[in-house]
Specification:
Helices cover 48% and strands 13% of the residues. The protein is of the alpha+beta class and 540 residues long. It has three domains: 21-218, no CATH class; 231-400, Serine Threonine Protein Phosphatase 5, Tetratricopeptide repeat (Alpha Horseshoe), CATH 1.25.40.10; 424-539. The chain has an eight-stranded antiparallel sheet with strand order 4-5-6-7-11-10-9-8. α12 (317-329) packs antiparallel against α13 (333-350). The longest helix has 30 residues, at 200-229.
């Protein structure tokens, strides 16, 4: 069964002086000889840039169950960055901003790293333990909690989770925390050792180890996305669940629901699944009860995950639309229309989310077609297609009974796909994977990776010891200079790829662009519809 999916791999007046700040966690530093005070103007370019980065981080986390701290930038030279619990502010100092700017092309990532660190303190409620210790400092338990060891544990966790937040917000993996810390100490004229803080050298070592741990979590996330793109939904679910145990966000809950929902499609007959649903990605089950029961359980499990995403962010349109698709698959057209045409439309309109508004037309077109309203369905598919939704165009062909384009077969004499002059299938035959590193996901399931399979490529292997089926992914890193076997290079547009490879088995639309998934190669395009990178894949 060929399934095409839509993947979704958002004025404060300062009055308090510095002396009134109330911190419940360690600030990044505490300069023993501060000399400045005051605030940076709201309309300055540096303030606006840092605030934009802050807002991207808040939206990426997508947790709006509690008030979001406001942003500030101070002219002080005491803390680098801070979370002020008394005034509910997260701030960065202008001097620290200047140091971040010295990091060149890593400047925005450095700013995001500092702000993400403070946001993680807030989301992980690190202030609670410090507040508890303050109230009970005369008791042994209070003294134990109010310890340097506990502070360092919180700081390390804030680096780790803050780093993943930065990655999910699009700032990449910031792996220069040690260098940033070195520059901050120099600019702030701080001693190597400060009271209640580990030494600079210890902090750099801690940053390095935390960075390595962060990179492993990012690899799990990336492999979860690749498994979803290639249709390995039940396995992808395990990977997202692994991430959820460490990091909670609306996107992770949404992706859990999406993989569960897509997994259910294999239990629905092709006749029932005539059209292609706009399921957005931002549970294995026993078959003993029959396919319909399995599908029903998976879909209802998906709805629970979408509800969790909505509870974190009531304005998160993808979860509402996915929930509408779930009810449509259950045959509950009343709820499908409500969550699609009412709830999703209201949220998407509020957020000026034109992509989600277009996808509503796709789902409504499917519902009209299922009710026999062919003309109404055609109008909705045409409207969405004219707005750039490729799934709508496909559904319009299905509605009219037109043939759907197929992926082109390899022609005789065509050279094998290679990245960094390596062919994945040949590497598998020769078992050239002795340098794999392993991350256990759950019993029998492992995420294996090689950070640099070649000068400009990486390798992921999803290993399932229970099914004895492994999936291999060899992908290009940003800026790769080579080309595919059919002469497609980074920067190629959508039409050039389709001309060379035919229509893909899956078209996945994300907030960052489009993914074209073929039988053995995946193309990832940016929002300009230009190729960013590609991945070849095989299973054994």
């Amino acid at each position: 069964m060929k399934v095409i999916i839509v993947l979704l791999f958002s004025l404060c007046i300062h009055s308090l002086g510095a002396q009134n700040r109330s911190f419940a966690t360690l600030t990044i530093v505490n300069n023993p000889k501060p000399g400045k005070s005051g605030f940076v103007p709201f309309d300055s370019s540096k303030y606006r840039k840092a605030e934009r980065i802050f807002n991207k981080l808040v939206n990426a986390r997508g947790d709006f169950r509690y008030p979001v701290p406001s942003f500030t930038m101070t002219a002080t030279d005491e803390w680098v960055a801070f979370m002020d619990y008394a005034s509910m502010e997260i701030g960065i100092e202008a001097k620290a901003y200047k140091v971040c700017e010295s990091m060149g092309d890593q400047a925005e990532s450095a700013i995001a790293f500092l702000l993400g660190h403070e946001l993680s303190h807030y989301y992980e409620k690190h202030a609670w333990k410090k507040g508890f210790a303050k109230e009970f400092r005369d008791l042994p338990i209070g003294m134990k909690i109010d310890s340097l060891q506990e502070d360092i544990s919180n700081e390390t966790e804030a680096d780790y989770l803050g780093g993943f937040l930065c990655y999910s917000a699009g700032f990449g993996i910031f792996d220069q925390a040690g260098e940033l810390m070195q520059r901050l100490y120099k600019e702030y004229k701080l001693p190597e050792k400060m009271k209640k803080y580990p030494s600079l050298s210890d902090r750099q070592l801690m940053s390095k180890r935390t960075g390595e741990k962060l990179r492993r979590l990012v690899y799990v996330f990336d492999l979860a996305n690749l498994l979803t793109v290639t249709g390995n939904y039940s396995e992808a679910y395990k990977y997202y669940k692994y991430i959820l145990m460490q990091y909670q966000s609306r996107e992770i809950y949404n992706n859990l629901g999406t993989t569960s929902l897509l997994d259910a499609l294999q239990y629905i007959s092709e006749k029932e699944l005539k059209f292609k649903y706009p399921i957005q990605l931002d549970l294995s089950a026993s078959q003993k009860d029959g396919f319909s029961n399995v599908a029903d359980k998976l879909i209802r499990q998906a709805i629970l995950h979408f509800d969790a995403a909505i509870n974190l962010d009531p304005d998160y349109a993808p979860a509402y639309l996915n929930k509408a698709c779930a009810y449509a698959l259950l045959g509950d057209k009343v709820r499908a229309r409500f969550y699609g045409d009412v709830e999703t439309r209201a949220v998407a309109g509020k957020n000026q989310d034109s992509a989600s508004l277009t996808k509503i037309s796709v789902l409504m077109g499917i519902l009209e077609a299922q009710e026999g309203n062919v003309d109404a369905a055609a109008r909705l598919f045409e409207k969405a297609s004219n707005e750039g939704n490729k799934l709508a165009g496909l559904n319009l062909k299905i509605l009219k009974g037109d043939p759907i384009g197929l992926e082109k077969e390899a022609v005789s004499g065509l050279k094998k796909e290679k990245i960094d002059n390596q062919n994945l299938k040949s590497m598998m035959l020769e078992n050239q994977f002795s340098n794999l590193r392993t991350i256990p996901i759950e019993s029998g399931v492992n995420c294996n990776y090689v950070e640099s399979q070649g000068p400009s490529s990486f390798l992921f292997v999803s290993e399932n010891e229970l099914t004895e089926v492994n999936w291999y992914f060899h992908g290009t890193k940003p800026g790769y200079n080579g080309s595919t076997a059919r002469n497609i290079k980074i920067g190629a547009d959508h039409s050039a790829i389709v001309s060379a490879y035919g229509d893909p088995g899956r078209t996945i639309e994300t907030p960052l662009g489009t993914i074209l998934a073929y039988r053995s190669i995946i193309f990832i395009l940016n929002n300009d519809n230009k190729l960013d990178r590609w991945i070849v894949y095989e299973k054994s």
